[in-house]
Amino acid sequence: GKPQHSARRRPSPIHLAVRYIRILSAEGMATKVVDLRSDTVTKPSEAMRAAMAAADVDDDVLGADPTACRFEAEMARIMGKEAALFVPSGTMANLISVLAHCDARGSEVILGDDSHVHVYEHGGISTLGGVHPRTVPNNPDGTMDVDRIVAAIRSTDGALYYPTTRLICLENTHGNSGGKCLTVEYTDKVGEVAKAHGLKLHIDGARIFNASVALGVPVDRLVRAADSVSVCINLLGTTLKCYQIAYATHIRTENGLIPVDI
């Protein structure tokens, strides 16, 4: 999962302590503690544990696990994409997506300077994929100015000197902007820019369901412009991690893929 903390300073133990809320009874006795450190601290209910213990399982490497297959198919349906891949973490989901689109070392991805992929994911796109991040300032609402995105796209005339732009990454909701939601109109506009320049669009959608509820927009509509999207399920109160979801299966073909983090 993905903690929603400031990119510039991690909260101190004192700050974390005040994020617990005690619900008091009429007599002033604590009856329940609500942990607000992060939406990643969810724990499974007894019903969830029972469902996991009773799940029909098989070898997922061979594509034979019926529960995983149903789960992936359902996530792809919900997101309006062709396929989904279940992976252990949101970081892995984003990494797979970036590397699927930037399949040549020396590729470049345009992303926000305060985005989760850039700040919190160990530089994995560079370390493991040889992908160069080109940052654009995030606005307080989590967006990047479209004009600045366009300006960051490398000219093919400089291919001898510069990395090759292949991907744009958005984050919805945007954690370091206080969970701000990116609108359909904004995402569509960035998608049009990507298509006009022959680029792909990935959405880090760890909390995309939150954005869907807040905006009153179906989640598949929020990600329609994207070639891939990562989704974290543990942030919805489950023990599952993440999905990478996209068009077709980029790992097996040349199209796309959608990781889901449980």
Can you describe this structure?
This is Aromatic amino acid beta-eliminating lyase/threonine aldolase domain-containing protein. The protein has helices at 13-17, 46-54, 66-79, 90-101, 116-119, 124-129, 146-152, 184-196, 208-215, 219-222; strands at 20-24, 30-35, 83-87, 107-112, 132-136, 164-171, 200-204, 228-232, 242-246, 259-261. With 262 residues, it is α/β, with parallel strands linked by helices. Strand 1 and strand 2 form a beta hairpin.
How does the SSE layout of this entry go?
Layout: H1 13-17, E1 20-24, E2 30-35, H2 46-54, H3 66-79, E3 83-87, H4 90-101, E4 107-112, H5 116-119, H6 124-129, E5 132-136, H7 146-152, E6 164-171, H8 184-196, E7 200-204, H9 208-215, H10 219-222, E8 228-232, E9 242-246, E10 259-261
Parallel strand pairs: 3-10, 4-5, 4-6, 6-7, 7-8, 8-10
Antiparallel strand pairs: 1-2, 3-9, 8-9, 9-10
**What Rg, in angstroms, do the CA atoms define?**
19 Å
Low-pLDDT segments, ≥5 res: 1-9, 12-18, 237-241, 248-258
Number of helices: 10
N-end to C-end Cα span: 8 Å
What is the CATH C level class, in words? Alpha Beta
Query: Biggest sheet, in brief?
Result: 8 strands, mixed
| Topology as a string of helices (H) and strands (E) | HEEHHEHEHHEHEHEHHEEE
Mean pLDDT reading: 83
Question: Which structural class do you get from the secondary structure elements?
Answer: alpha/beta
Shape, principal axes of CA atoms? globular
Relative strand content:
15-25%
Question: Percent helix among the residues?
Answer: 25-40%
Per CATH, the architecture is 3-Layer(aba) Sandwich
**How many β strands by DSSP?**
10
Kindly give the count of domains: 1
CATH topology, what is it called? Aspartate Aminotransferase, domain 2
The CATH superfamily name is Type I PLP-dependent aspartate aminotransferase-like (Major domain)
Oligomer: single chain
GO cellular component, one term: cytosol
Cofactor: pyridoxal 5'-phosphate
Pfam families: Beta_elim_lyase
Keywords: Lyase, Pyridoxal phosphate
